[in-house]
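Worked problem 6 (solution included).
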Amino acid sequence: MSEQEIEQKIQDKGLNAPRLTPSLIDSVIVGAEYHVFPGTTLTVCCLTLRNGFTVTGESAAASPDNFDFEIGKEIAIKNAREKIWALEGYLLRDKISRDSYLPSIARVCHEVNRAYCLALGDTSQPAWEEAPQWQRESALLGVQLHTSGDHGPQASHESWMKQKLEDGWKYGEVKDPELKTHPCLVPFDELPESQQAKDYIFRAVVHALK
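Solution. The predicted structure is:
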């Protein structure tokens, strides 16, 4: 079956979990070149992908009399595309695998932060199971940030502050969920060391567990 026929069968069966599609494969291809080696029937297709990586596919007629460049191109690009399916399949499976354990890391980060707050005399942090959805999502976004690259502790604060401001929070000397004011809505270097430490700890926990 062709890629499109397989795709249609998948759609007909309602299999809507994260998956690859022909259109996704098309979207990562930004260039195609074809070469026929002189004196042979070997046709090579070289596909350039969006990130600059290249894959190749080949075709060759056993009998020179049967060689046709257009047919050779079709077979070569089909074989090149098969390699993209494998590469993209690996990336998707890796993402699914990471996404499955990121909430667990977020829970640990939340509980470590709660313990640190208790040590500072701050009893306002609820247990993970009792935390509001926005707080869980905030922790998860922080985990996603630090698993996506080597970001410094200030990145956690900047991400957190961006979320707060987008949700309508503003700076205030007292933390007040009803008024949406928070004393930590300032640049990272203006935070007290005790508050900066939260971001250092958060980052360390993520990197230890990822």
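Discussion: The beta strands are 29-36, 43-49, 54-59, 170-171, 181-182.
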